Fold:
Amino acid sequence: MSLLLGATGGAFAQEVPAQAEREHRVDASIGASDLDGWLKRLTSAPNQVGSPHNKENADFIADRFREWGWSVKIEPVRVLVAYPTVQKLSLTDGDHYAADFKEPAIPGDADTARQDGVLPGMESYSPDGNVDAPLIYVNEGLQKDYDELARYGQSVKGKVVLVKSSGAGRWVKPRLAQEHGAVGVVIYSDPEADGYAKGDVYPTGAWRTPRTVQRGTLGIDSVLDEKGAKAIQAQRHTADLSIPVVTIGYGDAEHFLRALGGTAVPNRWQGGLPFAYHIGGDASVHLEVRSPWEWRTLYNVIATLRGSERPDEWVIRGVHHDAWVFGAWDPLAGTTAMLAEAKAIGELAKAGQRPKRTLVFASWDGEELGILGSKAWTDRHADELSRKAVFYLNNDTTGRGFLSAGGDPSLAVLVDGVASDLRDPETGATVQARRLAKRAVDAAEKGRDASGEIVPARLGTGSDYLAFAHRLGIPSLHVRYGYDRDGDEESVPVYHSLYDTYTHYQRFGDPGLAYVRLLAQTNARLVLRVADANVLPWRYTAFAASLDRDVERLAADAASAHKAALRHNALVESDAWRLAAVAYRKTAPPDRVDNRWEDVDLSALRDAVKELRLAAEAYDHAADAAGADVAPARIDIANRAIRDIGPAFLQASGLPQRPWYRHLLQAPGRKEGEDVAPLPGIGDAIDAKDWAQARAEVGLTVEATRRATADLRKATQALAH
Structure:
């Protein structure tokens, strides 16, 4: 098998010299001055949805695509936006300290001195509200924190909740607080997560200062539904959230945390500020939020380069261009890489080297408000995408360091091939060698060995791949460079703040933009290798092995949760919790938990996965061995069959407990610390103790797995004759 081709071996290796020559031309086309100039321009003013510069950037990107020979459309989308214009948070006694939600200028970074058009620290779509109530600290605001709070005899009912930003998405915390009776929520960034506990703060180092505020959205899909959004506009809140929410930095949070009295917090609740945290409930605050709830327009830029041989098969590449303020890390370094790719590929096309499949490059808008632009576009074009889309490649935040590639496990060989052909700027080793070294070191630190290929982890939520992967079943990748292993928010030390600027990125993100260039080279190879492959370069042994692991993980997690519930209740019944408690903390024993259990037989699913694995191994062998004598008609049959594998795992009506999501194998995680839920239809039903639904979901997943197996066998037969 040729690593250069990534997955197309046998006599198809005749394509290697031409492909290598194209890729070298792409590399030569990516100039440092272009990258620097584009990033500087894109980040020269605030870029939130509705800002003048966000529209200017959309027009600039569209003009560059046209200049390079692409066909371009700007597709507007009307959405309801709620940026607070009134925000108040103050202590109602003591020193009456008040947060101001603004970030001061940083010496040496001229952009940070500009306040014109800069949104304050905020949570978009916060419900309007005006409350005076006691303040109570609840750690990360997760269910386990509320359970622990109850043991201290405390409740958040009628109170304003103060929680860290870490642990779960910001859209989870207010809704959970409201369920427990809170009347408002304050989210803050603790220094243990991304402040001085991690390193020197800006401008000495990269990390979050005391006054750095993490903006965000409370995640409202319904703003894309004009009828539903009008009702929201009238009510000034959504159907599922009605309490006001603000966000502050740890410098402001310190004043509120110091004002809290009462019981000292449990050990795991203590944060990084240099004093003992308390639960509170005695000090009161005034919290007020008001927004105009206005209609704004998103601008998706869609550029198309028609394929020379398979124009009705689309390879789609996307990254958003909206940001919370300037947005160098998130997302405009990735947008800069996409411009470099588009220019280089456009030059190839002008020279007569047009890709075989059609390329669709998308610069999305509205990602920061809830992945709105790409959701709207995929909804508008769902039927066409179901017929034509073969692959989606996404970028978002990016920096320097290790290649991170999450996505469909069938794409592992494609990623390995590209990573093996590129050199890491810092070490001179291949990108793949650095990936393997990082994995080996991480495993050794946990007392384990690492072996085998690196399989992309299935995608959760958080960026524009969401609709492609979870709703349409299109094989998708999310690619970035960074020093963190998993691509989480630590990769952007000033995440969603004023300080995510060109200057900060050039100092700490990617000095000289060597990794932006590498990202462009990586992306260009990925899209061109898919676009030009005779047989789509997927391999399914890793896919089947990943599904096998998911089944066993689901079974183990369910069994473990049941055992934990039995153990917990046994301790309650034996009075062990009370006897083992630390007396001076005065904690009460926890309540019993629901330990009902019925067995859900997974044997049919295990059998189906075994058959899938055998079919996958046979297909991978046939694809690697396929020779030049395979007729084009048979290649078409094989490609059509493997394109049917992703949709085979879609549930048309949606998953029972989250109908927007359709993929039987993956969905965003719901449990604490879980990014991706394996086999979510089955898992959700087990968690809800709906045993009949769980068994029905097992049956649906078995049928889907058998359909995928039949598709693989059909593709194998086509290539083997």
